[in-house]
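Journal club prep — side note

Before the paper discussion, L.F. wants everyone to see what a predicted structure for a comparable chain looks like in token form. Sequence:
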Amino acid sequence: MLLIDKYAYFNRLSETHPVEKMVFSLTLMIFSLAVKNVLVSLITFIVMSAFTIFAAKIPFTYYVKLLLLPAMFLLSGLVTLLLSFADFHSVTMETIWELQVGKWVIFITNDSVQRAATLFFTVLGSISCLYFLTLTTPLTTIFDILRKLKVPKLLIELIELTYRFIFVFLDTSLEIFRSQHARLGYFTIRQGIQSLGLLISTLFVQVFRRANELNIAMHARGYHEDLNFLQATYHYSTRNWVIIISIFTAIAMVYYEFGGII
């Protein structure tokens, strides 16, 4: 079991109704993406991180590690927004930093800084919303909610099987890697490249075989295009709904009051 999946089953908010958690996280995420405001995104990130760490009791260090995962993609996007390239004589706008390289100039403007800051905080706020949902709600429970919302069964089953094979890929690749490492398969760089190629090819064969075995097992147990799971019983909480509505109302008021400033 992945650690993120373990926390989804064992956290302080595991008994909270999943609809409440989905409405709370997705509403704030959609609002943050819609307004694209630095202040709203920052407040959303702080609120969702606080609920994840203090309410759900997810370890702070693990949460920070999860936030670092999309950092590379986010930083690459920020670099492309910040830096602009143009001919030296064609630059007419005011710049806050520039570097001339031959006939070309690399420069940063106030507009590019504003766009990069908006993107950074919007993505950060959205990620915190999704992490709150995934760290406090098992995916099987989310699938059950999607069924009740009449999402096409085929789409749900594809997501379920993809989620299942994430564990198959990880377990199989870890077993092969340990076997290769025990035989000094990564002792040198050349051996490591060869071992990695063998790992990828063997992994494809093993996963394909596991997929065929899973298909046979599902049909042997009466599979008829519908995957069913036992679901726990949840109860709605008036207090939780009051908290959700209050937080969303407060963030919306902050946006309408200070949205044009930041």
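L.F.'s comment for the group: The mean pLDDT is 84. Keep this in mind when we get to the figures.
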